[in-house]
Amino acid sequence: FPIRAGAYTDELVQTAKSIASPGRGILAIDESNATCGKRLDSIGLDNTESNRQAYRQLLLTTPGLGEYISGAILFEETLYQSTTDGKKFVDCLREEKIVPGIKVDKGLVPLPGSNNESWCQGLDGLASRSAQYYEQGARFAKWRTVVSIPCGPSALAVKEAAWGLARYAAISQDNGLVPIVEPEILLDGDHPIERTLEVAEHVWSEVFYYLAQNNVVFEGILLKPSMVTPGAEHKEKASPETIAKSTLKMLKRRVPPAVPGIMFLSGGQSEAEATLNLNAMNQGPNPWHVSFSYARALQNSVLKTWQGRPENFEAAQKSLLVRAKANSLAQLGRYSA
Ligand code: 13P
């Protein structure tokens, strides 16, 4: 049963499979310069190119990282950057058998005609940018759009999010990049978990409808969903078991088993919560590889340990390995706190 033939189809399937390999997940360090600036500011560092380089060097040269990490999402600046000794970051990753990835969206802007919602820019020129990123060593891409529950979400915002993701996914595949499909349903709000489940089902049904319409090869994509949790301001917190149950229920209803991997975002959960929730999700067999693509939940203690001081460099790399290993065990369903 051949899947839709394209110049890169076999390679896309292989890339997606190697990222979704047992005990491994994605390290997301694709913060835009503005967002990276916020991380650096939290430890009193200026948002300069050399401080961003120093921080990314710390993360990407961690010895042994490839045991737990199969892919790293980079911002454009990092994809073209090298260590202070002149070794390309993409080569550091390749040596650890970590697939380099690239954030390709151009960020969120207000969506006129909606309920104060936003849409994600970046389709113009995406094909030529993607071809250049492939040339530079990237093999997968990420496009993050958001859906807000307190703002509706309006039918317009959901449709726009889904259509944008599907166009991006088709363009990425056409240029050899495995698209990570990320409609982040924001944690904000005081709604119960049932409301998140309802919105997530709606969003993913639209996303898969448009992915199919755009002839996207499902075997060559990865998903980056939010977990189904109560709103951050809801009066009751949910246990990892409840979060796992509602999240898997939603995914099983909406995501075909042809999709190789589900790589969750952490979305503002603490490091411990993100690990425990992932572990709960891997207590039984799933039709897809269920893993992580965390930014904040892998970086928070690294930043705290580093503080921008050279003498803390190795300790900070060790704290990255601690989180990466914990999430690796959670991917295998074997983590205990
Ligand atoms: P968080 O894990 O911090 O939510 O980041 C998600 C993301 O999209 C980064 O690539």
From TrEMBL:
Specify the superkingdom. Eukaryota
CDD domains per the UniProt record, alphabetical: FBP_aldolase_I_a
Recite the UniProt keywords alphabetically. Answer: Chloroplast, Glycolysis, Lyase, Plastid, Schiff base
What general EC class does the enzyme of this chain belong to?
lyase
Q: Which GO terms describe its biological process?
A: glycolytic process
GO cellular component terms, semicolon-separated: chloroplast
Q: List locations, semicolon-separated.
A: Plastid, Chloroplast
Q: Does the keyword Chloroplast apply?
A: yes
Question: What catalytic activity does the UniProt entry give for this protein?
Answer: beta-D-fructose 1,6-bisphosphate = D-glyceraldehyde 3-phosphate + dihydroxyacetone phosphate
Any one GO MF term held by the record is: fructose-bisphosphate aldolase activity
* Family note: Belongs to the class I fructose-bisphosphate aldolase family.
Q: What is this protein called?
A: Fructose-bisphosphate aldolase
Q: Which species is this record about?
A: Tetracentron sinense (Spur-leaf)
Q: What is the lineage of its organism?
A: Eukaryota, Viridiplantae, Streptophyta, Embryophyta, Tracheophyta
